[in-house]
Write a structure and sequence with these properties.
This protein is of the alpha+beta class. The protein has three domains: about 5-120, 2-Layer Sandwich (Beta-Lactamase); about 205-255; about 260-405, Heat Shock Protein 90 (2-Layer Sandwich), CATH 3.30.565. Helices cover about 50% and strands about 20% of the residues. The chain has helices spanning about 5-15, 35-40, 45, 55-70, 120-150, 155-215, 225-255, 265-280, 300-320, 350-355, 375-385, and strands at about 20-25, 30, 85-90, 95-105, 110-120, 260-265, 285-295, 295-300, 325-330, 335-340, 390-395, 400-405. The strands form three sheets. The protein has a five-stranded antiparallel β-sheet with strand order 2-1-5-4-3. Helix 5 (about 120-150) packs antiparallel against helix 6, helix 8 runs parallel beside helix 9 and helix 9 packs antiparallel against helix 11 (about 375-385). It is flat.
Length: about 400
């Protein structure tokens, strides 16, 4: 089992965004290394200091009033709300930032989490775009003037004008694409931070509350109550491990550390073995039915195929109710194998189906069910590595069938 506490600490310490925790009075409780580096302070220098220490003086008075209103009516605020915000470093220099706010209450006291991103690079790109626009207008005006003065060379000047405009437009497109990519990355990071903040907080709160209550049940006849809280703790720790496994898998894929290793094995045996293993995770009276037809021998990456099956069957279990059937069908023709996983669960809306293979995306009807929104994205990435394709059919409240095909010759 992963050391969950250690991974949580590493996640806090190694994330590239600044994280600052303040109490209800606006005093700094803790900050991560990225925030220390961003503002030039050590964490010890800011503990118990007002958050206004990190805000330029011309804004700090107004910010104190906003902070007071937030403490009275706290709410989550995502990044990218078209606000120009600035932070003040230890040496007095200012940096443009984006800030996402979240909050929670511990023992009756309000705590506010600020996720801070330095957007200096984006601002620099935007400034370059403005400069390019000015230069484009300047060159256009100069060329028009020159064209009027030198009517005898109209054709030559027209060619020069077109070439200059093409070059400047190409430069403008490159800058726009760079800005779009940076904004998309910022949005993905913001979605990740918001998701991680929510998904980690819930099981951690369960562990803390159950651990506290365990100490109160000391009598022998209270064993059933102790068992109930122990089960809650075990389920919460498993959920945290699942979250971390998704993050680690995505990280390895992004770093190019996952390669397909083709080996020969029995396809039917692997699929049936995986379905049997997943039986231990089914809900009350859920059944996994397995069928396979065609040649059973195949050649592909055995580990990636098993991970894909675990993810899809796990989703079918999670998004289906008790007393339902999950069907796993495999069909091989010796050259390729087609496998489908069908459930009788909550289904997926037409609007959401086009986004399901994106990272951190969750269907509108699944927001109250635990998960990272990474599972199908990772499945799609794994299938790309083994030259597979995937298709989805679903109807709300009737179920979902996910079918994928991979070469096995």
């Amino acid at each position: 089992m992963l050391n969950t506490a250690k991974h949580l600490v590493l996640l806090f310490e190694n994330t590239g965004e600044g994280i600052i925790l303040t109490n209800g009075l606006g005093n700094v409780v803790i900050m991560n290394p990225a925030a220390e580096k961003m503002f030039g302070y050590s964490a010890d220098e800011l503990v118990n200091k007002s958050i206004e220490t990190l805000i330029p003086q011309r804004y700090s008075g107004h910010h104190a009033g906003l902070r007071g209103n937030y403490a009275t009516h706290p709410s989550n605020r995502p990044m990218g709300q078209n606000r120009d915000l600035f932070g003040k470093k230890k040496d007095g220099t200012e940096i443009p930032v984006e800030v996402s706010l979240s909050h929670y209450t511990q023992e009756g006291e309000l705590f506010v989490i600020a996720f801070v991103v330095d957007v200096s690079k984006r601002k620099e790109i935007e400034a370059n775009m403005m400069q390019q626009q000015v230069e484009l207008e300047k060159v256009s005006n100069e060329l028009r003037k020159l064209n009027a003065e030198l009517e005898a060379k109209v054709e030559e000047r027209t060619i020069i004008l077109k070439e200059a405009l093409q070059q400047l437009e190409h430069s403008q497109i490159e800058l726009s694409e760079a800005l779009d990519k940076e904004k998309q990355l910022s949005e993905i990071k913001s979605r990740f931070l918001s998701m991680a903040s929510h998904e980690f907080r819930t099981p951690l709160s369960t562990v803390l509350s159950s651990a506290s209550l365990l100490a109160k049940y000391k009598k022998e006849e209270e064993q059933s109550k102790r068992d109930r809280h122990i089960e809650k703790i075990k389920n919460s720790v498993k959920h945290l491990n699942d979250l971390l496994e998704d993050f680690l898998s995505l990280g390895k894929l992004d770093e190019g550390k996952v390669d397909a290793q083709n080996v020969a094995f029995d396809l039917k045996e692997l699929i049936e073995e995986t379905a049997d293993e997943m039986n231990g995770l089914t809900k009350e009276n859920q059944q996994i039915v397995f069928n396979f037809s065609g040649p059973t021998k195949g050649n592909t990456d055995k580990k990636l195929l098993k991970n894909i099956l675990i993810n899809l069957i796990g989703n079918a279990i999670k998004f289906s109710d008790i007393n339902t059937c999950i069907t796993v069908n495999g069909q091989s023709d010796g050259q390729k194998v087609t496998i489908s996983v069908a459930d009788q669960g909550i289904g997926i809306s037409k609007e959401d189906q086009g986004h399901l293979f994106s990272s951190f995306f969750r269907g509108a009807n699944a927001v109250n069910i635990q998960g990272t929104g990474l599972g199908l994205h990772i499945v799609h990435r794994y299938l790309t590595l083994i030259n597979g394709d995937i298709h989805l059919q679903s109807e709300l409240n009737k179920g979902t069938t996910i079918t994928f095909t991979i070469p096995v010759n």
